[in-house]
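Changelog-linked ticket: magnesium ion example.
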Amino acid sequence: MHGTLKRLAPQLIALATLIALVSVFYPGFLSVSLNDGRLVGPVVDVLKRSAPVALLAVGMTLVIATRGIDLSVGATMAICGAVAAYAVSAGYGLPVAMLLAIGAGLLAGLWNGCLVAIVGVQPFVATLILMTAGRGIAQLITEGRILTFTDPAFAFLGSGNLLGLPMPTWIWICVAVLTTLLMRRTALGLLIEAIGINRRASALAGVNAVVLLIAVYMAMGFCAALAGLVVTADIRGADANNAGLWLELDAILAVVIGGNSLLGGRFSIAASVIGALIIQTISIGIRLAGFPSEYNLLIKAVLVVVILVLQSPRFGTEWHYWRQQLQFKRLREGKIAK
Amino acid sequence: MLLSIRSLTKSFPGTKALDGVDFDLRSGEVHALLGENGAGKSTLIKCLTGAYQRNAGTIALDGAEIEPQSSGEAQELGIGTVYQEVNLLPNLTVAQNLLFGRELRRFGLIDSRAMRAAAQEMLGDYGLDINVDRDLGGYSVAIRQIVAIARAVALSGKVLILDEPTASLDAREVQMLFTVVRRLRDRGLGVIFVSHFLDQVFDLSDRVTVLRNGRHVVTTETAALTRMTLIEHMLGRTLQDEVLHNPPPDRGKREKMLEFSGFGRRAVVEPFDLVIGKGEVVGLAGLLGSGRTESAELLFGLRATQSGEARDQNGKLDLSGPRAAIAQGFGFAPEDRKLDGIVADLSIRENIILGLQARRGWMRPIPRAEQNRLADSYIKRLDIRTSGKEKRVGELSGGNQQKVVLARWLAMNPRFLILDEPTRGIDVGAHAEILHLVHELVEQGMSLLVISSELDELMAVSNRVIVLRDRCHVAELVGHEISGESIMRAIASTEEKVE
Amino acid sequence: MKFNKLLTSAAVLAISAGAAFAEGEVIGFSQIGSESGWRAAETTLTRNQAEERGYQLQFSDAQQRQENQIAALRSFIAQGVDAILIAPVVATGWDSVLQEAKEAEIPVVLLDRMVDSDPSLYLTAVGSNLVHEGEVAGKWLAEAVGDKPCRIVELQGTTGSSPAIDRKKGFEQGIAGHANLTIVQSQTGDFTRSLGKEVMESFLQSENGGKDICALYAHNDDMAVGAIQAIKEAGLKPGEDILIVSIDAVPDIFKAMADGEANATVELTPNMAGPAFDALEAFWANGTVPAKFIQTESKLYTQADNPAGEYEARKGLGY
Ligand SMILES: Nc1ncnc2c1ncn2[C@@H]1O[C@H](COP(=O)(O)OP(=O)(O)OP(=O)(O)O)[C@@H](O)[C@H]1O
Ligand SMILES: [Mg+2]
């Protein structure tokens, strides 16, 4: 428990500082009110709107832990959203639509996983293929337009409420918690970390690296499918051109802000998810503060850089060093004074 | 005085690796730096070359204080280093590695012909004639080590540091290396030499400094020391039987356990037959590149065989890959611990249980208490020097990393364990411990295949020694036939088969 | 298949060779791709128009790549088509291929986007005036609101894109002189439905739960559709509590208007081919050279303009 808190400290501090900063520009940021059974307020918006990136970040954390990367998740989201919208408008119920969408996500993951683990293509290149082709596939399904639907059950996934909180929030929290449990209550987490750090040595020790890698990319596909369902449900339509566009980058950023190394190995899903919350807080904060759109990207970039620099191990060591020196000096001065 | 180090101190969280160490190096001497695994030898070297930043102490070269911030800066000062864990770039060619940062140019462009010639000449000193245009990563550990040495030698103008350079070399290359080192010494360089091979220390060094637990113990002329006193300085106690000179008792006809017939792969190892008895220790001897590691890799399914089959008393065995081999009760502790052995960012505990866990499957995690028990027991049995079982394996000293790799395989309790250079980088004390352990395992019925460049070691453990030459199994020595001389003869012999 | 087509086009050429203006003209159309519903509708309408007028349309989808478009143009020239329509994916790099068309005496009409080449290299360009569109929207709002004070929130298009800049400018011109109308929030919604919704949520948040907002101006209908959902979810009535005006006139906004949830939209017509063919026919008939830029009409639709009917008319166009 103590270890977990220590691991998450930088992210939590960054988030808290950010919230404080936003509150300066928009004092009501933390205010939450109850409006016919649903909580409303900027914080609730953050919790809801971070759903796609948080979901992706869960899967991306695992992929990155294996020393991989998945650039195709945005396109996969578009495919899965399109599949679900198509199924629902063709008259199938929500369960079937969800199953089809998740199936599509798993299939995308299987494809990526096989390219990486069996064919041996570099993850960056392997997933680039689906990144470019995927949106085309989604457009084929939607025939290039926004495929709208009216199914209230599906729409509920995006804009419904359960116990006061938006559905997307519940979805990402569940996925993050369950995945964390799956990783840490079984040996999966350890084995994934092992192949990420040293695949050769792990394989030699009997770790089934090929199957694990494929499974990890499929888990990523699963998360992307859920994210695709959420954004599609949110606007009651599958927008093949824009659904999930560039979200792969936000997901990777979330993982990096979460202090996970792009070189694989040790990972923390909780930290990545906090990373997603940080990104969304920045976006919503900038908007609420009312800065002109032109500055959004710049402000976001600056904040992200600051957060990453503060987290970097180099900075940590330096900081440690200077603190030691200071303590030293104080000690010595104290001694002399005595 | 060429180099003088005063009260050097370096601590890591939880460990004081160096505690006020003094060290002097004269020009024109080979100065051996000795101590147990984890005594602080590598740390001293890294502080000296700027790979680590020291906490306190001074370093002076030719009387002037130096403060290198990186190996590169140390090189510019004339200090060339071969680190314990060879740190070359496997994706570059041998020539590029040798001349990295000093590429030969012609009209501003890299002159690859001149580079090739220069590289070949550099390696010539070590009797190595290989294709220098191939990627370094494709070559064996030994060749990588020689490349690292050649590179460091070329870079050292004043000081040459060798941290266990001979760990994976065999006698012939060691002699070639020593010739080069002596030549440099006679030219006035100072050489720091770290090794756990005491014979080599006595052979090469002029003076010795011993460290223990990060402290300076003694510095003296090598000639003034006996092997016994030196070991006493290192361990802080006397060692009963340093090396066991008798292999485990051979109780006559033993039960046949495994039978490999016609195992081979073209251009790797010629097909060979091998029978392993229960509780038998078979040694594999041969020169660098003779196919020892490759034979082991075939047996473990790491390389696919083109011919042959394996059987035990129950029939044919599937050895299509490491997992299949492990399922058959095989184990393989590899030669290159950094690349194939340790998972550096995981803790000692996790590294030790990794193989067991993989075999049990991800759904049945080993309970934490059991993990702790296993880790504690192997830390104790193999005397792994660490501040705790949660320490990252990458932060252990080289020899202790090796022990962790061994522990992983021992924890899996295989029936047939292949050990490729098992004592590489392990100190005399632990070496004896490990040989003891091997005997214990054999008593319990485990069979072993041991690959080693150290003939003493082979002789000490093997019931049978198989000799390889040019990718062929050329001889088999049993029981009393095994001696250093007979092995050497078989290695050198040009006859097709020595029976 | 291809060979067949070639044969027919050769035959058509042979027939039409004598007459200056005859039925069965062959038109080459190089489309950018199908990146949006509007673009798909433009393709559909171009096909429909060609069919109505009895032309034979050679269609080529460039999939967002200029080299595909240049290749398509060259093949049209080689076939000796009677005219070329092109929606250029980028503005530069067209000089040489347009020169080739000119030398082959094939008139080229640009659709919906401009190029940087010399105007003498093409017959004319058909397109809308983005500033004008914004102005129409602004004027409608100013009229609809009257003298009441009105706080407007604006969903911009992609930051820095010319439609976003021009539609913003036009709208500001449209409401100029009405001091009671003020734009209080303006953020980008990237022309997408989901960001339109997300940003609207923030607007509602910072404008007292939306109670202070009198109108929304969105640079395209998609963002407006997203915003409408956000307004509904916040418990307000879009179209009544908050007036909604946007641009493009895609089917879904007509549906919203039919439901009383949106108030007005300004059409960016996907029928660029109609005016283009009109100009070509005049040119073929008596050599009338059209103006270098033909501006399409920016028609305003409100709830009074039979939105349900408009929806039906448009939904099959591929939006
Ligand atoms: N990067 C590091 N982080 C933490 N501890 C370290 C690090 N490097 C070395 N140590 C610790 O410092 C001590 C000395 O290690 P060092 O590598 O110098 O030993 P050594 O004498 O070279 O041993 P060996 O013969 O096994 O190579 C060990 O206890 C080791 O665990
Ligand atoms: Mg060492």
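Closing comment: Example verified and attached. Residues B 12, 15, 17, 35, 37-43, 84, 385-386, 395-400, 425, 427 surround adenosine-5'-triphosphate (ligand 1) (CB under 6 Å). Chain A touches chain B through 21 residues (CB under 8 Å).
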